[in-house]
Each structure stands twice: as structure tokens, then as C-alpha cells.
Amino acid sequence: MKKNEIILSQREAYRTKMRKGGVRSTVEAENTLVFELRRGAITNNGATPWWVSATVGTSTVPQTFKFMMDTGTTNTWVTAKSCSTSECTQHDSFDETASSTFVWQDQSLTPIDFSGWGNMDVNLGNDVWVLSDKNAIDQDVTVDFWLSQSYSGARFGELIQDGFIACGPYGDNSRSNLIFDALWYSGALASPSMSYWVDYTIDGAAVDSGEMIFGGSNADKYDPDTVISLDIVRESGLTWAIRSSLTVPRYLRLPHC
After folding, report:
1. Please, which of 47, 100, 160, 176 could form a disulfide with 40 given CB 3.0 to 4.6 Å?
2. What is the pLDDT of residue 122?
3. What is the pLDDT of residue 171?
4. Who has greater pLDDT, 107 or 12?
């Protein structure tokens, strides 16, 4: 059996197990990557202040950036060194000429509409990304991604991160790759799932903490017996959608997020 056939059979076995009542997945599972979420200053642009660290390219001096794990986009991008707007110069930027493994895929500029944020002009490159998890596991993956050559506006100026790691659903018209999908289809992850948790304090101390988990979840942060699995579908104009019905107790008390 070929490697891709083994991976496909493993995926089908996982889906079957999920349909039969769910999987109790923990961060100790093999092929599970746990990334530390750090929190920057809260701004007025509506974006999450949480970020992860990742290194892009193969350079003598590593080029490491702050990235938002964005479940609402399929555009993976990083600020390019050649971007000269005032908003760009407030961020760390990627110098593709310093990376020995970088390859241009399309140098023509493509506009991306970020709705109320404004437009971004990008071109497409390919390079290796290295994500270091909390267990000192360096997971590298080679993907196509956007190099942002221009963005402007107050919301971009207040952005804590230097770029986005797209965690949206596969199938949109973006030409950049989803890093999660690339890891899953390479067989690097135990399951096709991602999860996260954040906590603004640890034991009452003024220390923020959080994790973004690829390939599993941290069962210490919830009661696995209460998990409900719902199918995600694509709907026109929506990034994620759930086509299902739930019965919720009238006096159910929900935790504040």
C-alpha cells in the first residue's frame, strides 16, 4: 500500500470513529502539535491580540514573525520587506532575497479585499515555514503564501501580528496554501482537527496563556463526555457554516469567553 493510500485509510478510520461517538484526543497524542499562544496589546481594530511564532525561509539569520491563527480566512500572508507604507514599516517583514529556499510563483500584484480593513496588494511565493511547538518539535512545511507589498489604514496599523496563518476551510479561491491542510495531507497530524484555548490569568497571577493545537485537543480544558460533533458545510458568503439543529435547555448557563 502506498503512503497516500495509508493516510487516506487512516482518515476514513478516524471519520468512522467520530461518527460512532467521538474521539477523546489529548495533547499527548502522537502527531499532535501544540503551539503557544501569546497575547499582545488589545487594540480597537477588532482583531484577536493572540499570536504564534513561526520562521519563514532558510536564512543565515532566522526570519521569525508573529502570526495570527485566523479561522476566518484562507489567505496565508506575511509583510514583505519591500512594502513601504507606514503601516507596513510598523511590522517585522520578510526578505525573500535572504532565503536560499524561496521561489517566486507569481510576481504580478493581486488585490485582496479585507472588507472594512481595506485592500492589500500581494504577490505569490513559495518557501519553507517552521513552526516550533511547546514540546520543542520543529515542524516544517513548504507552502505557497502571499507576500504583502502594500496595505494601509488604521486597522492594519494597529495589527499586532506581522501576517496571518490561514486556518479557514479548504476550497476557497485563494492561491495561498492552508498550512494546517498541508500538514494533515502529508500525514503529520493525528486527526483533521484544530482547537485552542486561552486564559487571561494563571492561578490568579497576571500572566496570559493559551495554546493552538493541530491534530487534537487538550482534554484537561473541557469535559470530553460533553462534546457534540457537528458537520461543517460550505455556504455562499460564509467561511464556516453548521447545518444542524440543537435543543438547548431553557435555563442553560453559558460561560463567558
Report:
1. 160
2. 95
3. 58
4. 107
109-126 burial, b at 16+ Cβ within 10 Å, e below that, comes to eeebebeebbebbbbbbb
* Cα separation of the two ends of the chain: 46
Instruction: Tell me how far apart the alpha carbons of residues 117 and 153 are, in angstroms, rounded to a whole number.
Output: 7
Tally the residues of the chain.
Answer: 257
**Pick from 82, 96, 56: which is nearest to 149 by CA?**
82
Higher local confidence (pLDDT), 173 or 78: 78
Residue 40 DSSP code: -
E-assigned strand segments in 86-235: 103-113, 119-132, 138-151, 163-166, 194-199, 209-214, 232-233
* Residue 47 CB-half CA count within 13 A: 27
Q: How far from 178 is each of 47, 154, 166, 210, 218, CA to CA, in Å?
A: 20, 27, 6, 22, 22
Segment 204-224 shows an average pLDDT of 81
CA nearest to 87, candidates 147, 159, 166: 159
pLDDT of residue 18: 37
Count CA atoms within 13 Å of residue 10 on its CB side.
17
All three cell numbers of 150, joined, read: 502594500
Q: C-alpha grid cell for residue 47?
A: 482583531
